[in-house]
UniProtKB/TrEMBL annotation:
Protein name: Neur_chan_LBD domain-containing protein
Domain of life: Eukaryota
TM helices/strands, residue ranges: 118-137
Keywords: Membrane, Transmembrane, Transmembrane helix
Transmembrane helix listed as a keyword: yes
Amino acid sequence: MRLYLRPFQSFYRSDKLKTLRGRDCLRWLVDYWNTYYPEQWDWDILIPMVDADIWERELQDFTHKTHRKYYYDMTQWKGRKWYLDVWFLPQEQAVKVKTRNDGVKEAVKVNAQNIESLVLFFGVFFFSAVAIVIIWLRGMNYV
């Protein structure tokens, strides 16, 4: 794990996490998620696990998505929905933990709508300019 990044930045936290293994580390992350305000971690956390069925007990309050085989928890903070996703990776024998928020998706939607509006505006502007030029040329008997 990258102990110099969030959520492990303080000296005490990184020393504590160096002693934790597997399920205990996952429990610490879930407690951290439930205790502090949510934040976007720009990297994935991989926690090595010995047995796949033990770690699931730490996620009893999480929602399970069977079609994608992952667990998630949702927290709302300042009008945004924040998610903590947890997967088991059988090839690596590890649990992958990642955060995400819907605020980013909403910003992308707004940006796409703005682009569509600009395309529509320039299309109408171009059509109007062509119509004005044609009318002007007809007045001069060129067309």
